[in-house]
Amino acid sequence: MGERVTLTCEIESGDDWNYEWYKNNNLLSDAKRKEYEISNVGQDHAVKVRPTITSGYEGAVLTGNTVNLYCKLPQSAGWTFYWSKHTQSPEKKTTTNTYTISSVRVSDGESNKAMVNIKPDKQVFKGEPVTLRCDIQAGGDTEWTYSWYKDDSLNPNRRTQEFPISSVTESNAGKYTCRGERTNDLQKSEISDAVTLTVSDVAQAVLSVSPQSWLTEGDSVTLSCEVTGFSTGWTFSWYRAVPYRQGLNQIRDAHGNVMYGVELLSDSRREAGGSYTLSPAAPHHTGVYVCRAERGQPAYRTQYSSPQPLWITGTSPPASLIISPSRSQHFSGHSLSLSCEGQSDSTGWRVRRYTHSGEVSDCSSVTGSTCNISSLYTSHTGVYWCQSESGGGSDPLNITVHNGDVILDSPVHPVTEGDSLTLRCLYRSTKPSDLTADFYRDGSLLQTQTTGEMIIRTVSKSDAGLYHCKHPEKGESPKSWLSVRATDSGSTGVTVGVAVGLSLTVFLIITLGLVYYCRKRTGDSAAQPSEVTYTEIVTTAKPKGNNEAVTRPDDVTYSQIKMKDLNHHET
Prior knowledge:
The protein starts with a strand and ends with a strand. The chain is built from no helices and 50 strands. It is 0% helix and 43% strand. By secondary structure, the chain is mostly beta strands. Residues 489-567 have low confidence and may be disordered.
């Protein structure tokens, strides 16, 4: 302010020029010469100069990077520079036209944080293919190179967006992070949050049934398949376990023995929902089922589930299974005959069995529809039924083979209310001189009989229960259910695998374990290497609904036999 200033208009060539001067685009009428002098500069003579700001990068600046900002003027000498942004107070002052931000924050620039995604899931199983992908937020079409870190250690061999692992092992488990670097200006993205990859043992499918395994024709039953753990993205398939034949997948036990083959159910579809419903259930659905799951591309498949039996008793089954001797308990080493009778609608009837070892097979020594077992082993314990080539079936029955000295002679079929019944202790060798035996129902002593027989003159529903007998020298028998069938209501009784009949005036859920352990007798030719058999029986009373479409006896309960878990393998 107050200074004398001379402005000169220079033209490169020539002297014969007329000059005009302008201030803020307005002609100065008193300025006609080459030089224009202002003797006393005032505020009204000021001309504003607009600076421009640039950075050291083209395009957006990524958070975490260092950036230089430049303030450009037509003439930068002698200036003091003030830097500010709308969120900053006070202003920053520099004597040069450069301002440096050492680490750009979200409020300063564009957020391009990296993010790790894992397919098919963060929880995977050994042998499963896995792909890790590094995505940059707001990355756009910019080309990037990538850095991968596992447990904070850089993997020098991975520079691509995707990090594929063809078959994961436990060594691949850990925390993964990534970041990107723009190829055009070498700016780096923020490093991603860590994502943990968990590698579990081989995937196992688990099959369950609801509401129960023992059903009456017309009921509805749902098989549910799931994979152990909390993994996602699976599709499921269901199979029937059948005696192995060429062309089927084999299921073997831990010793390499073929237990059964599996057939894909014709109406089984691979779908995300892990359930398969039979409604209405029919006798031809009787059998043993397994499931498996798969996911990913290429597909990774679980092992087959443990087998889950379904026993469907018919209102008028096309065949009946006849057992001789007609009792539920038998001595090992003795013979047994089973036959399918009354088969009228189908051909090719066979006696099929599901043993407590988990094996599904046709009964040995089959002649037509008859199965003769000349020497029983405890491994023959299981559920037996008749099945035709067309899928027809009988009601299933339970057979227990005992390796001890005493069994209970009890009926394999239900006893009609009002009939007379004799229960007796049977002995492997000659009868002892003293036949005195104790008889128990549901674990409580009922009678002690010197004849070794207990007679129920008139059977009533209150006589139903779990019976066994005990001899003071020979030992005790396994336990067997006595089922009592009502005579009223005009309905025919339904024979179930473990013959159980209780009054259904109240809902009953009875869980009963039948466990027996027998030592190998010296010189017993029927003994096998394994001396332990195990059968767990779960008995559930099924109430009759008001809208039940199928008429059934109101005195029938249904039993589910749960087999021991086995280590089995597929081939």
